[in-house]
Amino acid sequence: MIRLGVVGYGSRISGVIKSCLREVEPDIRVAGIVDPDEDGVRSRLAECDQKDVVFYKDLKSMISKAKLDALAIGTRCHLHASYAIEAAGYDLPLYLEKPVAVSMEQAIALERAFEKSKCEVVVSFPLRVSPLCSLAHEYIEKKTIGSPEHIQAVNYVNYGTVYFDTAAYRDFKTMQGLFLQKATHDFDYMSYLMGSNIVRVAAMHTRGRVFGGKKKKGLVCSKCKEVDTCLESPQNRKRNGSGGTLFDHLCVFSRDCGTPETGMNEDSSSALIEFASGVHGVYTQVFYSRRDAATRGATISGYNGTIKFDWYKNELKFVRHHAPFTDTVKAGEGMSHFGGDSELAYDFINVIHGKGKSRTSIWLGIQSVYACLAAKESAETGCFVNVRQIGAL
């Protein structure tokens, strides 16, 4: 039996344990938890964990008493780094949610902490290891398109209202914007496919034009006089099939969403990216898309061909530039994070049993944060920003 300790037992890490880790290793038990909300945690715990789980006041106490085989960190984003830094000293296999840090100070401290650590980390980067991305990488490695000379990646998010109608996600002080929250996935897989780190970024963001506004603080749909006409009310979301929570929720047009001056999540953002290899790419993420407008994936071009894949379509196309042939490959349906979560679960269980290495190391997590922080700085200053590289301490 694997004894797992969890710091921050939220809905995301709960889903990973129940739906992914237990599919790979049914005999895994949550033996210890560090989380102040015991009632909320118990409502999410599987029945097999309810009886024997012990709650601890801090990570140190859990490590000393719980006899753990592995750790998982699923706290709010701004706490990932501090707990991971402490975990680096315990040398237990660690599953760490992204982003691994939300500031340059945190990221540098995290890099220092893991310089001499034996802690093997699986960072939650499921896109990199998803079947479609792996297939695209296989095509590129076989030189089917020649050398990759350009990448265009997009993320039109059809559930983007969650970043404005959920208190935890719209709290800019802990989130620090959607480059860190969302693009950390995409910058990582873009670097993976291009075989090269991101070294320079020029970015822009648009804030406060779609979401946010002047509605009073604390406003929820059930207390709003415009509930019958507002497109974001639960009944209109349900009627229009536009997605998002269908229950009473916080107003996406309220002052609680923040302002461009005080800080808020962006409606959309884009980045022009330079890789260490000398080639460049572009990335765009949009958070007010709905329904079938959803798309996430990339187009990678070389002299000999183009590869294009979309996770929502579960499809990859390979176009030969100099022959009249195009291949289309379909992937399986209904996989969590497009199949990447299952791959990470296999990696983590194998790391625990000493049978394999992580494909999403702490170094990839930190490097992605450095790229995201550069994009955030560029969007705020209007300047090109060089990306800090691992090993620059």
Structural account:
It is a single chain. The protein has 393 residues and is an alpha/beta fold. The chain has 3 domains: 2-126, NAD(P)-binding Rossmann-like Domain (Rossmann fold); 127-207 and 262-333 and 361-386, Dihydrodipicolinate Reductase, domain 2 (2-Layer Sandwich), CATH 3.30.360.10; 221-257, no CATH class. The protein is 34% helix and 21% strand. The chain has helices spanning 11-24, 38-44, 47-50, 59-65, 80-87, 104-114, 126-129, 131-141, 162-165, 167-170, 172-175, 178-194, 234-240, 340-352, 362-381, and strands spanning 2-7, 28-34, 54-55, 70-73, 94-96, 121-123, 150-156, 198-206, 268-275, 280-286, 295-301, 305-310, 315-320, 326-330, 385-386. A hairpin with a 4-residue loop joins strand 12 and strand 13 (315-320). Helix 6 (104-114) packs antiparallel against helix 15 (362-381). The two termini are 40 Å apart.
Low-confidence stretches: none
Distance between the termini: 40 Å
Q: Strand portion, in percent?
A: 15-25%
Give the CATH architecture of the largest domain.
2-Layer Sandwich
CATH superfamily of the largest domain: Dihydrodipicolinate Reductase, domain 2
Q: What name does the CATH topology of the largest domain carry?
A: Dihydrodipicolinate Reductase, domain 2
Number of domains: 3
Strand arrangement within the widest β-sheet reads: 14-13-12-11-7-10-9-8-15
Quaternary state of the chains: single chain
Q: Return the string of H and E elements.
A: EHEHHEHEHEHEHHEHHHHEHEEEEEEHHE
Question: What percent of the residues sit in helical stretches (DSSP H or I)?
Answer: 25-40%
Task: Provide the residue-averaged pLDDT.
Answer: 96
Count of DSSP E strands? Answer: 15
Number of helices: 15
Radius of gyration from the alpha-carbon trace, in angstroms: 21 Å
The CATH class designation of the largest domain is Alpha Beta
